[in-house]
């Protein structure tokens, strides 16, 4: 792993609310084209576009992201993203902010979008087990992921049922409701800041009338590798955590972008 990230894996967390819900395989594999209309969560000002074509079990995905948090601990901010499912098939709203701190945590949002079913990494493993493979995360505030892979049956079922949701994680401390709220202990791992593990963008996967995938990366993006090499996984099962450095606790301040 790039040592500049200074991020390590943490043990798998038992998080029942976000554990991937099993579902029987459906005969129909949700063939067609799909898009996502992303909603900004917890003060996020970033944007993203998502297009996906499915042919039997083969999915071709084009994700373009811009304007998210740029740096984390003086290194490019690793943003992980997934297709969630098995729940309500919706995105959370501030009404789901149970503790009223101004940040929708991963667990507060899980009732709406469910557990990880597919990891949308830049290459390699797309299973839920790769949910925290930081080598495969989008790096910085602007990046693109363009790749073709075999979709698992659970995700295909969720897409066909209309309950698949794309979630991009990692809030920007500069746009958070407050520095105190951002740096509060994460609901997933108390040694980490809440904002670093919380969803930033969310959108329901919906059928599209468009017949062609967009081409090329975002104008300001950093294109990521689409190699199929399976880099060393930092597994987290159904949960999501950015890992703390050995013996330390992260504090991310509002001027973090100045350190880019």
CATH architecture: Sandwich
CATH superfamily: Superoxide dismutase, copper/zinc binding domain
Percentage of residues in DSSP E strands: 25-35%
Q: Give the helix tally.
A: 4
Largest sheet: 10 strands, mixed
- Report the span from N to C terminus: 19 Å
Describe the structure.
This protein has one domain: Immunoglobulin-like. It is built from 4 helices and 14 strands. It has 260 residues and is mostly beta strands. 10% of the residues lie in helices and 26% in strands. The strands form 3 sheets. Strands 1, 2, 3, 4, 8, 9, 11, 12, 13 and 14 form a 10-stranded mixed sheet that branches. Strands 5-6 form a two-stranded antiparallel ribbon. The chain has a two-stranded antiparallel ribbon with strand order 7-10. The radius of gyration is 17 Å and the shape is globular. A hairpin with a 2-residue loop joins strand 5 (71-72) and strand 6 (75-76).
In short:
With 260 residues, the protein is mostly beta strands.
List the helices and strands and how they pair.
Layout lengths: L31 E5 L2 E2 L6 E9 L2 E9 L4 E2 L2 E2 L1 E2 L1 E5 L20 H8 L1 E5 L18 E2 L3 E8 L2 H9 L3 E5 L9 H4 L11 H4 L1 E9 L14 E2 L37
Parallel strand pairs: 11-14
Antiparallel strand pairs: 1-3, 1-13, 2-13, 3-4, 4-11, 5-6, 7-10, 8-9, 8-12, 12-13
Descriptive terms for the model:
single chain; 260 residues; mainly beta; Immunoglobulin-like; ten-stranded mixed β-sheet; two-stranded antiparallel sheet; 4 helices; 14 strands; 10% helix; 26% strand; globular; disordered N terminus; disordered C terminus
